[in-house]
């Protein structure tokens, strides 16, 4: 089984960036609110990293969206 699904990673990065911008947050502000580094947020948005479930939960919480809705948006791409 292929462990790296490039389409899924690209869709995640797209939704993350769109949701972050729609929330009016910079990468720096989202990083601060999630207790992650700004470089890590950047790596997620540029398809260079994949989040853990814990990170996904923290990001969704700060963006004001459920994990289920976030994932549904990813699946729709």
Care to describe what's here?
The protein has 77 residues and is mainly α. It has 5 helices and no strands. The longest helix is centred in the first third of the chain and has 17 residues, at 6-22.
Beta-strand residue fraction: under 5%
In whole angstroms, the N-to-C terminal distance is 22 Å
Tally of DSSP helical segments: 5
| Envelope shape | globular
Radius of gyration: 12 Å
* Biggest sheet architecture: none
Q: What would you call the structural class?
A: mainly alpha
Give helix % range.
55-70%
User: Which stretches of 5+ consecutive residues score pLDDT under 50?
Assistant: none
Q: Count of DSSP E strands?
A: 0
What is the N-to-C order of secondary-structure elements (H for helix, E for strand)? Answer: HHHHH
Mean pLDDT: 96
């Amino acid at each position: 089984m292929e462990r790296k699904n490039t389409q899924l990673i690209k869709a995640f990065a797209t939704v993350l960036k769109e949701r972050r911008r729609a929330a009016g947050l910079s990468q720096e502000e989202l990083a601060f609110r999630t207790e992650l580094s700004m470089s890590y947020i950047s790596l997620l948005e540029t398809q260079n990293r994949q989040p853990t479930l814990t990170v996904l939960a923290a990001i969704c919480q700060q963006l004001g969206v459920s994990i289920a809705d976030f994932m549904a948006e990813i699946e729709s791409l």
